[in-house]
Design brief:
four-stranded mixed β-sheet, 2 domains, eight-stranded mixed β-sheet, Aspartokinase (chains A, B), Carbamate kinase, Asp_kinase (chains A, B), globular, homodimer, about 35% helix, about 25% strand, about 400 residues
Chain lengths: ~400, ~400
Amino acid sequence: MSIIVQKYGGTSVETIDKINSIANLIIERKKSGFDIVTVVSAMGKTTNNLIEMTKKISENPSERELDMILSTGEQITSALLVMSLKEKGQDAIALTGFQAGITTDEKHTKSTILDINIKNIRKQLSEGKIIIVAGFQGISHNGDITTLGRGGSDTTAVALAAKLDCPCEIYTDVEGIYGVDPRIYPNAKKLDYISYDEMIEMSSLGANVIATRAIEIGCKYHVPIYIALSTGKHKGTYIKEYDKSMESKVITGLTVSDSDLMVTINNVPYRIGGISNIFSKLSERDINIDMISQTAPIGGYVNISFTAPKDSKKLISNIIDELKITMKEIRADIEENITKISVVGLGMRTQSGVAAKIFEIFATNNIEFKQVTTSEIRISYTIDTKDKDKAIIKIANEFKL
Amino acid sequence: MSIIVQKYGGTSVETIDKINSIANLIIERKKSGFDIVTVVSAMGKTTNNLIEMTKKISENPSERELDMILSTGEQITSALLVMSLKEKGQDAIALTGFQAGITTDEKHTKSTILDINIKNIRKQLSEGKIIIVAGFQGISHNGDITTLGRGGSDTTAVALAAKLDCPCEIYTDVEGIYGVDPRIYPNAKKLDYISYDEMIEMSSLGANVIATRAIEIGCKYHVPIYIALSTGKHKGTYIKEYDKSMESKVITGLTVSDSDLMVTINNVPYRIGGISNIFSKLSERDINIDMISQTAPIGGYVNISFTAPKDSKKLISNIIDELKITMKEIRADIEENITKISVVGLGMRTQSGVAAKIFEIFATNNIEFKQVTTSEIRISYTIDTKDKDKAIIKIANEFKL
């Protein structure tokens, strides 16, 4: 019998009623002729509540013990779901990460799966049971409980599907992947398909439907991933390798982020290592900078802009003050009202002119862009936040997103 | 260095503040020159709350999965206590039942410890760590999480002490073992010592300070058990083998129980197996009967009395109705206002006259007793509940409890 791995996230299992509903869906799916392995997250806000509790003891709690605590959330959901399945007459078994054979490295709170021994899962499936696996967790070689970090249950599900050589279904609280987030562009179209590469770019740009790491595993091991509403009533989106059956689009998606600010430092002396001085100070304070642009040097001086998370504003101000001690001539400015807009599409590999088309949209609509950076399948712009809605509508219309 | 196993119960760890206080006590104890292994229960009412949650899904939830859920309570406490110890600068490690090497049989929700592999505990102790073990749980041979039932953390602690060949300290919310529960007899004296045999009798009679099973393990493996308040500020009680240093007392303790009712069935026909018919029906319905008394047969008929838990009243009424179909002549009565008073003491083995002394107390004080049963080191009476306080005071005074 074909196997299917499913994953239900925290909002899908946040109450006993929802757990009972999902048990019904799983039984239906089993009856349609599949062996089922379902990965579950902790109920609702359980993980955050557990973290809050540990913060009352220590600002930096022991990570090994934090993993022991956090892993209980998924362990409880998996057991409750099995109780519900059995109450409905369906044999089932709950497995912790350890019992599911998931071994990880020792990096507590952000471990990586090293291997999955699927012997136990195969045995339980052969006995006709539905298997419910506690997501987000594993065990290290010395027997410590580990967790996989944010989005860990997605990773558990896709890794299990890779090992069982079967498709993976991620059930969540959105209907699938949209070209543009429907909360910011209500006319956005749901995609039937998206390639792994496009989804990785969109996910790393902030489309938080599925963890980037899970897509990377799916890509590496050729696992077809299906994302849909946990009610199972609407058609979702397949993430898979690009093939010709997929509609040929230049741009697949557009992502928007308001979480960055833009720093511009003008009049940086080129000769005395002024630039490297700036970036090494940013790196020392762990400030995660993203888009960097720089003008060509004029008279020994350059102008530099970069984006960074808004919550690092104070740290950056301090760094600028420090820089002014040795480089009195610099002039710095921090702009907070900026928005980063990125377009992603495999079509950009072969079709040029996307950047030009967007420049044209900006010009005809009086949208000033401050920075532009490009990679093989994406282009990102920073613009003034006041122009955000106009830019989204014009680009989405132009590329039929 | 000498090892000490400690156990802290649910009320001792019910808040983060209490966990922090206990961390201080453990560190003090370690500094006084001992290697410490501490067993903890789930915080406060956690276990009951988890059971409530499962009841919303199923009246009889899958026991394997119930164990997966219940075990998380102790797992969380152990990790929080380690976080607190580390925050105070003391190296420590939390171990689940599985990580502590505790293997049990497969009887979910009431498992028995089969063995403890103490290799990991020895290793961690040799590295100077305090070890916090999640009580109440273990792992079966096929890798399932199991729990040990009510009082399971006591059992974990005493079994660990047996295996590590060291004393066991049970910290709880009472100051130690009293001859009579101080809530019902305020003048009761705390005992400095009590023998395993006496404590097993008292515990099975309802003195719920420590699980009977834990004392039995202590008795079997000669583990000295010390019971005291979790603040560590008052002298508690040692449970150990009887030796001559222990004060010579005829009666060590008195226990009182109001949780039973008494059933009397008169005119039971002796010849047609009437008696066995009654007790087999009680056994079929899992009614736990305790004190049984029977008169000698007169004219082919006997009168029988027995005690049973008050919550089985309805079941017993039904059984009596059934019995009347085949034995029309019986007359039955259920008395709910009865109290069971038991006296326990090793001295009874050698000193006769305890029963006579108590009969005398009852006679001179107008206390009517309905039943009496005896074992080697205990005598139990059922009396009318209205006479309870008088009986307790008179017996406690007479035997200086």
